[in-house]
Each structure stands twice: as structure tokens, then as C-alpha cells.
Amino acid sequence: MRIHVVMMAAAGLGLSAMPALAQATLKDAFKNRLLVGVAVRPHQFTGANATQAALIANQFNSITPENVMKWDALQPRENEFHFEQADRYVDFGTRNGMFTIGHTLVWHSQVPGWLFKDAAGNPVDRETLLARMKKHIQTVVGRYKGRVKGWDVVNEALEEDGTLRQSPWLKIIGEDYLAKAFQFAHEADPAAQLYYNDYGIEGGKKRDGAIALLKKLKAAGVPVTGVGIQDHVSLTWPPATMLDETITAFGQAGLKVMITELDVDVLPARGHNTSADVSRNEAADPALNPYTNGLPANVQEALARRYAELFAVYLKHPGVVTRVTLWGLCDGESWLNDWPIRGRTSHPLLFDRACKPKPAFQALVAPRR
Ligand code: 9MR
Questions:
Q1: DSSP H or E run through 286
Q2: 281 within some domain
Q3: Which tens digit of pLDDT belongs to each residue from 215-245?
Q4: How many angstroms is it from 98 CA to the middle of ligand 1?
Q5: Would 292 be classed as within a structural domain?
Q6: What's 110's domain CATH number?
Q7: Using one digit for the tens of pLDDT, what is the confidence trace for 120-133?
Q8: Does 86 reside within a domain?
Q9: Ligand 1 centroid to 23 CA: how many Å?
Q10: Among the options 66, 156, 202, 333, which is catalytic?
Q11: CA 70 – CA 101 distance, rounded (Å)
Q12: Which domain holds residue 20?
């Protein structure tokens, strides 16, 4: 208790923060087994919201930047780098002794308009795009060498059928763009862990495609440390057995597995769709937004059981699954409030809209035996 009081005094917090801090923590619950991380936003890592900053420092031992290290944030115009936010993010992680992640170097989304074009607006050639990729990766990874411990190097390069996504990276550079990205990142920081990160690879053809791709990269000597399974999941998909088999298969291929963007969507959906593609945008329908006044107890319980089930699967793979990162701290700021339908009231995380721990949190820190 004394430690918490000291921490709060240091962070200049009011008493209202006390209940959230004076309790068991996720990082202790999984100590020596899993790092537990969270995706963070500027108001949290700059300390503008001191309560949330303290909650993050208290509960988690790893962080990922939700948006501030994407290409459009770091290099909006060619050779014009903006590091203010990213520097503060890395400082927060370093100060708090957290395993600090970089997200993400090579992605088809959140990229500035100039990246794939020349001055006349025509697509650039392979050599130009490779040079731009190299410059970006070496500048960014080089700047945080030794402090950012792991990078999502290539993000979401696969289609739902497991073939390579027809992105500008693939069309302009060709298949070896993945190997090049890992190579450049490795040159810039040989000690950093380097991941391939994707959603929907928990099962099916996309999983098979990911395994084949990663085996091929490893066989060619490409410095890939592991695979990030994003795990934007629902209450029922993927089934625990499927996830378990998938992690086993990645482990057998010699890869570490990170759970990089975990959240559990409890809202009803139009049909079954395992895609977390940010470009999905569906029409609103009140029937698909049933929990605007809070989550009913039976759904809270189902969510708690689901979180417990997922962590039980992760824990079955010691040495393979080494980190689990939640994609956000409190429900009110989850991306799932606006995706795939804008303006819904979503409840996918461990802390509610008041940033108070939910039954799902309790299920992880104090499991019923
Ligand atoms: O949560 C992120 C949201 O705030 C952004 O608007 C969106 C677009 O950049 O990206 C979200 O995060 C995505 C992550 O970077 C990659 N995997 C899917 C995540 C959810 O869309």
C-alpha cells in the first residue's frame, strides 16, 4: 500500500485513482511467464492523463504505440521526420522499464500519399521504393536502437486466402520486399526482435499462408524473430483448440509468437467475418449496438471466461508465446467503438469506460480455482 501511495504522490494523482492502483496486477499475475502489454495513445504516455499513465505503469510491463509510429505520423513528407510523439512514447517506456515495441514499419495503410509516387504522380520504380523503405527503416529503427526492443516490421501482408496482399509494396518491389524490410531493420539494430504481424491468422487458409511465408523467410536466412498474432477475436472465434494448434505450428517452425493486439469483440456482427481490415466500414443499425447503457452481467461473465480461456491457451506454450499485448487500455477508447460501424458502444478490453477493472481483469489476476 505504501508503494502505491508514493507512486500516486509522484504522479500527482487524486485519491480517485487509488482503487485502480491498490490491487493485484497483470504483470505480476504472469510474471516470468508472459510480458503483458498495452497499446497506448499520446495522452497516456505524455502523462496528460496522469491517472491512465499511472494505471499503465502499474499494470503492464510492455507497451506498443497505437498510432504514433506509423509511417504517416513519422514521415508525412519525404525526408521530413516528426519524432516528437514517438520520442515521448519511447521515453515513457524506457523510464518505466517496459519492453517497448515499435509499430509498424512496412504497412499498406496509414501511409502518406507521396510514398508510392514520383513528383508527376506516377508509381515509382522498384529501386526508388526500396531506397525510401531503407531510408525510413534505418532512420527510425536507428534512432531508437537499444530502446525499442521489438519491431512489427511488416504488417498485414497477406490476403484472406493466404496469398500475398496485392499492396503497392508487392506490386512495385516484388515478393522480396518482405525480406528487404527485415534485412534493413536488422542492420539498423541487430539486437532488436523483428516480427511479422497480422490479423486473421489464427486459423484457415490465412494461417497456412502465414506459416508458409514465414518458413520461406526463415529458410532464406531472413532475420525474423517471430510472428505477431493480432488476436482481434470474438467470444467464439477462434475456438481455443484452433488457436492452440496454430501456436503449436508456428512454434514448430522455430518462431516466437507474440499476441500483439488482443481484444474481444462482444457486439453482434453482420455474419461471420474474421477480418480486422481497417478499411471495413458498415452502416449503423441499433440492433448491432445493444450495450449503450453498460454490459449485462451475463455478457461480462462470458467475456471473463473468454479472456481466461485465451490466456490458458497462451500459457500452454512457454518459451513460444512470450508477450500478450491488449489493444487499448479502457473500453471508451477502443478502436472497436468505430469499426466496422462508427459510433458504437464497445466493451472489448479489461478496463471499462471509467477505466475500472472488469470481471475479465479479475479472471486473469485472481483466477477461480
Ligand atoms: O487502433 C488503431 C486506430 O486508432 C487507427 O485509426 C487505425 C488506422 O491506423 O489503426 C488501428 O490499429 C490497427 C493496427 O495498427 C494494425 N492492426 C489492426 C489495428 C486495428 O485496426
A1: none
A2: no
A3: 999 999 999 999 999 999 999 999 999 999 9
A4: 22
A5: no
A6: 3.20.20.80
A7: 999 999 999 999 99
A8: yes
A9: 30
A10: 156
A11: 12
A12: 3-268+300-365
Residue 272: per-residue pLDDT: 76
261 C-alpha to center of ligand 1: Å?
9
- Asked whether residue 275 is domain-assigned, the answer is no
Catalytic residue among 78, 80, 127, 261: 261
Query: How many domains are contained in the chain?
Result: 1
Per the structure block, which three cell numbers stand in for 107?
504497412
Is 156 a known active-site residue? yes
pLDDT at 368 (0 to 100):
65
Could you tell me how far CA 220 lies from the centroid of its own chain? 27
Alpha-carbon distances of 95 from 62, 100, 138, 213, rounded to whole Å: 12, 11, 24, 37
Least confident piece of the model among 9-23, 84-98, 129-143: 9-23
SS3 content of the chain, % helix, strand, coil (to 5): 40, 20, 40
Contact of 327 with 337, CB cutoff 8 Å: no
Pairing mode, if any, of strands 193-198 and 226-229? parallel
Q: What are the C-alpha distances in Å from 52 to residues 118, 354, 356?
A: 43, 10, 10
